[in-house]
Amino acid sequence: MIQIGEQTYAFDDPIVLALLAGGIIVLVFLILLILAVRAAGRSARLAEPLSQQMGWLGQRVQSLSEGQERLAGGLHHVSEAQAQSQTSMLQLMERRLAEVQNQMNENLQGSARCTAQSLGELQQRLVAIDKAQDNITKLSGDVLSLQDILSNKQTRGAFGEIQLNDIVTKALPSDSYTLQATLSNGKRADCLIHLPNPPGPIVIDSKFPLEAYEALRRAETQQHLTEAARFMRQSVRTHIKAISDKYILDGETADGALMFLPSEAIYAELHANFPELVREGFAARVWIVSPTTCMATLNTMRAILKDARMREQAGAIRRELGLLFQDVERLGTRVENLDRHFGQAAKDIADIKISADKAGRRAKRLDNFDFEELSPDAETVVTLSKPQG
Fold this sequence. Notes:
The protein is an alpha/beta fold.
């Protein structure tokens, strides 16, 4: 590498090669010059050709010097052009770097906004997840509470009664039923519907054979299934007999009663796999209902109550219609009397109008009477006598 000023050139550069060639020529010239000077003393005849040779070499050296100057000028021009090119390239690179930096800043800002927005949305989702987790925890606690309720026989019965009360209060008017009604035999029914005769008041009692149903669900072998089915039959038959004996009273209640099952699953299990229990209930005049079928039954009872009340009110409606007819007759008589009064008043008004017309005509004649036609002698003075005490 060769450094000229602030520029650096490689050995294989044409300009460097040209400079080297010029230097070699100058060196050869100097060597020849030295040889010629040494040879001058040897032969005078060789002086003139040597002088010519020296002149020719001087011209060549001058040419080489001029070429070297032109080459130096070209190298300077090339150096300036390269410097300008480097300056332009640096400016262009600076602009491109500035543009790239601005674009990167914008992209980073956009990414920061998107990241902040995503983080905000993520935080909202986390809040929603926390709320859902709280609800799940609460629901788990409620489920555990429900399991605790259903695991106890008394609380399980209360659960069925509450569900029955909710259905009855939504389906029937408040004066058509009695909750926890006590019958003449001292037995207390969960609900007594006051239906008209026939069929008469009907009892709805809540029963919940959950233990037998859970034994069916937990049965893993045929023996366990058989034992659980026997337990289910025994439990349901016991409930049917209890309702039939306690809540079907001749002359006091209807000839049937309803057994309310607060579980649709148990109701479906009985109809699917224990139809003989349903038939036994029909034979004992105890009809098994679920929350859904109980609501439908109560709506039917509501229609019966409405029809019965309409029949009860039919006599009162007839009496009211008779009284209304009498009122209408009296109103017609009074209208006729009023019409007669209006007729007499119209006649009186017509007579008054005739009298007013006559008085008007007399007043008009008096107004047209000429008092100047009377002579003074004919004037007669009428004296008024003093009225006597």
